[in-house]
Design brief:
With 84 residues, the protein is an all-alpha fold. The chain has one domain. Helix content is 82%, strand content 0%. The longest helix is centred in the C-terminal third of the chain and has 20 residues.
Length: 84
């Protein structure tokens, strides 16, 4: 459970923090389309961060955990952007 909450926060930081925004812009300067959307969407990037972490570290395919983590990160990002 704490892993899901932690990775949801990592997903929000990946989207909302200034250093990662600059890093993404530097990396994706010439790329358009699916790769840009994948790395600029809180749900997409958090899903993949959690999914690949679970797969490589624990050799576990946890699609349910990745989905919960992705939705939670989107909710956190919306709350952060709304000022509540």
């Amino acid at each position: 459970m704490w892993t899901i909450i932690g990775f949801a926060c990592v997903g929000v930081l990946w989207i909302a923090s200034e250093p990662t925004i600059r890093l993404r812009n530097l990396i994706l300067r010439t790329h358009q389309g699916i790769w840009r959307r994948l790395l600029e969407c809180a749900m997409c990037s958090t899903f993949h961060i959690y999914f690949w972490y679970q797969l490589f570290v624990f050799q576990n395919i946890d699609i349910l955990g990745a989905s919960i983590c992705a939705v939670l990160s989107e909710i956190l990002l919306q709350k952060l952007n709304s000022g509540i």
